[in-house]
Amino acid sequence: MSHSLTPVALCRSPYKQKFAIPRQPNLVPAAIGRLELQGECNRAECLKGLEQFSHLWVLFSFHENLAQGWKPTVRPPRLGGNARIGVFASRATFRPNGLGMSVVKLHRIGQEGKQHFIEIAGLDLLDGTPIYDIKPYIPYSDALPDAEGGYAQEAPTPMPMRVLPQASEAMAAAEQAHPGFQRLAEQVLAQDPRPAYQRSADREYGVQLHDRDLRWVVTDGCNCVTDVVPL
Ligand code: SAM
């Protein structure tokens, strides 16, 4: 049986490109976004009672990757990008139905004009991601402390960040425009988003967060911010 889905919300996120989004939610608690309710779901009644929960499940589409299809096996970055495992043994974005799921923190529920929204923290979603369902996280059933994590047992070891003197003014300006920007940058870079095959000490990397191009180099295992360019 096939079944067509209509988004219930649209995600507004500081992540404007796929590069450097963490691999899972809650690795970057400083990432704050919004789920803007859409169509018939854009009403306060749909959210009644949700404020009692601290966390939510968000079910969404990996919409940027849908056109590229899927394969029965994938090579998770965790395994160095070489070993193959089954798509259903992975959280890969290239999947038969292109669906993702993330547990995020519920910050607040609000309304601006006619737009109802849920502010969330710790998301791993690209700006513009269509959301197909939102459900409360229920700790007695969803939290399983004895569960086995297979090849993804531990969160990656975080890398430190330093803002080089040449970037300190630009970082302060970004912080003023987007309070929490520096913490966001630090937590995003802590995940070492550089592609495994392109890690060289003299290379400058860049990623868009909000409306800034965050630029950095890696020196002696430390992320050194070289600039924060307004876009
Ligand atoms: N927590 C989710 C899950 O397990 O289904 C997502 C895990 S997936 C490995 C996380 C990656 O999805 C991010 O690093 C980002 O690059 C990618 N991503 C996030 N939103 C996306 C979107 N709308 N389209 C395509 N890729 C997306």
UniProtKB/TrEMBL annotation:
UniProt domain TsaA-like: residue ranges: 5-146
Keyword Transferase (UniProt): yes
CDD domains: UPF0066
InterPro entries on file: TrmO-like_N, TrmO_C, UPF0066_cons_site, YaeB-like, YaeB-like_sf, YaeB_N_sf
GO MF entries: tRNA (L-threonylcarbamoyladenosine(37)-C2) methyltransferase activity
Residue spans crossing the bilayer: none
PANTHER family, per database record: TRNA (ADENINE(37)-N6)-METHYLTRANSFERASE
NCBIfam families the UniProt entry points to: tRNA_TsaA (TIGR00104)
Protein family per UniProt: Belongs to the tRNA methyltransferase O family.
Name by which UniProt lists this protein: tRNA-Thr(GGU) m(6)t(6)A37 methyltransferase TsaA
